[in-house]
């Protein structure tokens, strides 16, 4: 049930973002910039399960990169199954 709720939230999130399909959204913690490509997201919710203090589809912005260390962000991003999440180092 919880999984279905997470999937539904991501579906709604993508509906809201339909106008920006093909674009990227970025969220920074000051050291690492999290890059999210909505059109690639499979809504598996792995990000929400691994770092719920960062990824919360019920809130806006739904990614709060400042709530995790750079290492935590990079480790989680490497587990994203779709490639929707990536990152770049801030200068
Ligand atoms: S882990 Fe990646 S594919 Fe899964 S919900 Fe998060 S952003 Fe989307």
Report on this model:
The chain has 91 residues and is of the alpha+beta class. The chain has one domain (2-89). The protein is built from three helices and three strands, in the order αββααβ. The chain has helices at 2-16, 46-50, 70-77; strands at residues 25-28, 32-36, 85-89. A three-stranded antiparallel β-sheet has the order 1-2-3, with helices on one face. The N and C termini lie far apart (42 Å). It binds iron/sulfur cluster.
- Number of strand elements: 3
Number of self-contained structural domains: 1
Strand content: 15-25%
Structural class: alpha+beta
Determine the fraction of residues in helical runs and give it as a percent range.
Answer: 25-40%
Rg of Cα set: 12 Å
Distance between the termini: 42 Å
Number of helices: 3
- Which regions have little confidence, pLDDT < 50, spanning 5+ residues? none
Write down the overall mean pLDDT: 90
Bound compounds:
iron/sulfur cluster
- Provide the succession of SSEs: HEEHHE
Side by side, the strands of the main sheet go: 1-2-3
Shape: globular
The profile of the biggest β sheet is: 3 strands, antiparallel
